[in-house]
Specification:
Structural class: mainly alpha
Largest sheet: 2 strands, antiparallel
Order of helices and strands: EHHHHHHHEHHH
Number of strands: 2
Helix content: 55-70%
Number of helices: 10
C-alpha cells in the first residue's frame, strides 16, 4: 500500500515587522524594475537634450545680438538716424543670423536622423553647407573687427586690447557653437538608440523570465504534498521503440493511483519527467505511460 507523506510544516502567524519587511521588499522590486526600464532612460535623455538645446540656442542668440551692434557700427558709419540706411543696417546681421539658424536647424535634424550631409562634388570634403556657414560667420567676424582696429576719424574711439579681443572671440565662439550643435543632436540620438529595446525574433524566453526573478509572495505558501511509496518499485526493462504503450488496464493499481494523485496535485497532464521523478522508471517506459494516460484522458 502507498501512504501519503505530509511534508507541510506548521507555519507560525507572521508578525507585523515581517509583513512590513515583505511589503518593503515588494516595493524594492518595483523600484528596481522601473529604474532599469530602457524607456525611462530614453525619456531622461530627451529631457536633457531639450534643456541643452535651449541653452545653446539662448547663448547663440545672445552672441548674435552682440555682433549685430558691431555690424551696424561698421555699416552705418557716420550716417544720421534720419537716413533710411541707418535703420536698414540693423537688419543685415539679423538676416545673416536667420540664415545661419535655419541652416543649423536643418543640419541638426538631418544628423539626428543619421542622414549624411551632402558634401557637393565627389572627392570634396567641404560642401556648400560648410561654405555657407563659413561665409556667414566670416562676414560677421570681419564687420566686427574692422571698426575696432580702425576707428572712424573724428569718432574719438581708441583701439584697446579688450575691445579687439571681445570682437574677435565672440564671433569665433558663435561659429564654434554653430559647429557643435549638430554634434550634440547626433550624440543624443545615438545614446537613445542604445537604450531602445529591440525585439529578437529567435528569442523564445518567456516574458516573465526576461523580467527577472519572481517576486516573493505576500503570504507564504505551504509546500505541496508529495505522495511517496513505502518501497520503490523495481525498475522495469527499457521498452523497445516498436513496443506499444501499455493500456490503462495494464498499469498496476498502485502505480495508477499514485499517478492520479500526482496529476491532481499538479493540476495538469503528466509529462515523462514527472513520471520518472515519481516512479523512478526508465525514460522510455515513462514516455509510454505518459502517452497512455494522455490517450485515456
Amino acid at each position: 500500500m502507498l501512504r501519503r507523506k505530509n511534508t507541510e510544516p506548521s507555519t507560525p502567524e507572521e508578525t507585523a515587522r515581517v509583513r512590513k519587511l515583505r511589503a518593503e521588499l515588494h516595493e524594492a522590486h518595483d523600484l528596481h524594475a522601473l529604474s532599469e526600464d530602457p524607456l525611462r532612460h530614453i525619456v531622461a535623455l530627451e529631457r536633457i537634450r531639450v534643456s541643452v538645446t535651449r541653452s545653446m540656442w539662448w547663448f547663440l542668440a545672445a552672441g548674435l545680438g552682440f555682433t549685430t551692434a558691431g555690424v551696424h557700427d561698421f555699416l552705418a558709419g557716420d550716417k544720421p538716424i534720419s537716413d533710411p540706411m541707418w535703420w536698414g543696417c540693423w537688419l543685415v546681421e539679423p538676416a545673416l543670423a536667420g540664415l545661419l539658424i535655419t541652416l543649423l536647424r536643418w543640419e541638426s535634424e538631418m544628423l539626428s536622423r543619421e542622414v549624411a550631409i551632402p558634401s557637393g562634388r565627389p572627392g570634396k570634403t567641404t560642401g556648400p553647407v560648410q561654405w555657407l556657414k563659413k561665409v556667414l560667420l566670416g562676414s560677421t567676424l570681419v564687420m566686427n573687427v574692422v571698426p575696432t582696429l580702425w576707428p572712424r576719424a573724428g569718432s574719438g574711439e581708441q583701439v584697446t586690447p579688450g575691445s579687439v579681443f571681445v570682437h574677435i572671440v565672440i564671433p569665433i565662439v558663435v561659429f564654434l557653437v554653430a559647429e557643435v550643435m549638430p554634434l550634440i543632436q547626433t550624440g543624443f540620438t545615438r545614446a537613445k538608440e542604445r537604450h531602445t529595446p529591440r525585439a529578437n525574433a529567435t528569442d523564445t524566453t518567456p516574458a516573465s523570465a526576461r523580467e527577472g526573478k519572481p517576486r516573493l509572495p505576500l503570504t507564504p505558501t505551504a509546500p505541496a504534498v508529495q505522495p511517496v511509496p513505502d518501497t520503490p518499485p523495481a525498475p522495469a526493462q527499457p521498452a523497445v521503440a516498436t513496443t506499444a504503450a501499455p493500456s490503462r488496464s495494464a498499469i498496476p493499481d498502485a502505480m495508477r493511483t499514485k499517478l492520479a494523485d500526482l496529476r491532481a496535485n499538479l493540476g495538469r497532464s503528466l509529462t515523462p519527467e514527472d513520471i520518472r521523478s515519481a516512479l523512478r522508471v526508465p525514460e522510455g517506459y515513462a514516455a509510454q505511460l505518459a502517452a497512455s494516460l494522455a490517450d485515456a484522458a
